[in-house]
Queue: 3 jobs
Job 1
Amino acid sequence: MSVEKVAVVVAGGSGMGAAAARRLAADGFKVAILSSSGKGEALAKELGGLGVTGSNQSNDDLQRLVDLTLERYGRIDVLVNSGGHGPRAPILEITDEQWHTGMDVYLLNVIRPVRIVAPQMVKQKGGAIINISTAWVVEPSPMFPTSAVFRAGLAAYTKIFSNTYASDNVRMNNVLPGWIDSLPATEERRDSVPMQRYGTSEEIAATIAFLASEGAGYITGQNIRVDGGIIRAI
């Protein structure tokens, strides 16, 4: 008898997180979704899964999500970490408090759930963690300073995690979206993309689904750009 696969999507109530939850459910995963808005619970109900209203900045809420998931399904095979939007301002005008908020939104949003979920994956001898990051990790943009700084930190965290847990068959990769249709569209941004269009949340979800699949079983510690060719550095 085949084992039922389970995916946890953090910050999955809307945008790319919600698209990932839909795609994974379509691929046969049971899904558990955390969101702060309540949209995650509604989406989970629609998909026949488990929804929790709570914050990815709360260890208690994350622990509740994981406990309920294990209670219902007995395992966690995939963890998808999405997030919100952090402070934006000219770099010298960002306050200490705003930098701390950026760290919560763009780095600790991954570290917290991974700390809770990874031991279960190690116990299972398998699991895939996929973090939604940004295309501007390698070439940081002054438009998104807190995102660029802390997601560069996320790239380092991902390499260390992957080196540590690859032998347990627990993988971690980052998806790096460019301009995606979950963001407000502008002509200037569209023109900056070699493909001359915004990407779709569904394209990000398809990349996540691949990284969650057995076909990506030899991929870990990577930053996968899905940006229409904006960043072409090696």
Note: The mean pLDDT is 94.
Job 2
Amino acid sequence: MSTFDLTSFVANNTEDAAQKIIHNAMKEFDNIAISFSGAEDVVLIDMAVKANKNVKVFSLDTGRLHAETYRFIEQVRKHYKIDIDILSPNSEALENFTREKGLFSFFEDGHKECCGIRKVQPLKRKLATLDAWITGQRKDQSPGTRNVLAFAELDSAFSSEEKPLYKFNPLANWSSEDVWNYIKMFDVPYNELHAKGFVSIGCEPCTRAVLPNQHEREGRWWWEESEHKECGLHIGNLIPTAQQ
């Protein structure tokens, strides 16, 4: 990669052209990977594979995922004939945490510490090896935390002055309906939990099915206030509040 011109990239791409954004991002960066966990991310993989068979994909294994999610990861690996880099938490940090606080401390003092060990730290280690990454974030996934989401940005959470990291969110302006229309149209694999009322799927203890007309994030960390419903993976997109 030569010096990446973010301003030029934004000017030469349109926010609704997801496939073009992915293709052009992969042209700009050799050392780029897709973060995979849910339905949106498989849409990204499907688009990316059509452009480049050597797509790099990684996924976070927190150790607390549903059995259906583990089967889904394997299904995607076989369907697209790709390698998926499975990231695990640091064993010593995790052992110390569970020894001190047990397996369900997040119901008492919030999910941030657990997510920090199981998700954020493994992600941070992975991103330190990359120049750019692609995520399936959508603006409408989490009201109050993702309303402002660019389709291409400097990652404010994980960049450093010595090593900038760029982040692409090609589905930023997509709706859930857009995602599922694509999945149905191109016969894209999806997590079987979606057929059981789960919309936004994370770790098993922190995820539940939602009722009709409930927002998808109501199924995540339901015991906490809506403005706290981020695990830290996309902390750079949080909107400051008057209290912060």
Note: Residues 237-244 have pLDDT under 50 and may be disordered.
Job 3
Amino acid sequence: MIPLVHDLSDETVVVFGGGPVGARKARRFAREARTVVVSPEFADRDFGDAELVRAAPAPDEVPDWVERFAPALVVAATDDDAVNDAAVAAARDAGALVNRADRSGERDAGSVVVPATVEDGDVSVAITTGGASPALSKHLRERVEAELAGAGEMAALTAELRAELKASDRSPAERRDAIRAVVRDPSVWKALRTGDANPRQEAARVIRDTQRGDS
């Protein structure tokens, strides 16, 4: 499987199943897209901002539900193999992606795995074991979280610096080296994470140092 980042803006995700797995998937997708959960019961679970539709479609009724919502992604997360099979088949027929949450290791064309993610601003890191070990994905996510602190602010800062350097008379190679130096400089990271110093001033110092080194 090849990791890709998919924009679900203005798209719909349909989740079949209101159990713990369905709720977790719904919370994740509801942050990015219209998410509809179809289930006969929801218990006292957190589904985020997802729309909850109380229904228990039989396998031969599942295609009608998929057609009704025209989703970009279908999540099959019920405890009924026949319903999950029908959800997968309906998604394929509709040209939608499918995430089958009740099995791991079985991957057909159009299948997606929902990775464990760590986010800081515009920076996202996704971790997946191909569905083989969710526990390992969670463990690695927890380890990455600490390392990612400040990455969102670094992305915003270097985006501004790139625009400013592009308007200068520095060559593309010089601009690239300057930004790389900022990204790798511990003092800039410390300023972003602690606020003890001005990150932009630290970055400007690093860039001046690279310019002196080039001269």
Note: DSSP finds eight helices and seven strands in the chain.
